Protein: Membrane protein
Organism: Thermaerobacter subterraneus DSM 13965
Amino acid sequence: MMMHPGWSNGWGLWGMWLAMVAFWLVPLLLVAGIFWLFLGRDRHRGDRGSEPAVFDENRRALAVLKERYARGEISREEFERIKDDIMKS
């Protein structure tokens, strides 16, 4: 019975098939991982860059508002109206 030379040890064709898949899959996954890493950093950097600044401004504005109310410069109604405006922004 004549057999194909690559079938003699059982890993000939499978080894070549796995090598071919690895040859194309590994570089593709590396490139995709690099893109994901850089795009993920930029996306998160943008999120972190804008929200804390707004949060800090709102916190400072509320602190000033509370001080003005404590000194009696504004009424309770004005305090509530301005506080609502600050919280909406």
Observations:
- The two ends are 83 Å apart (CA to CA).
- The mean pLDDT is 79.
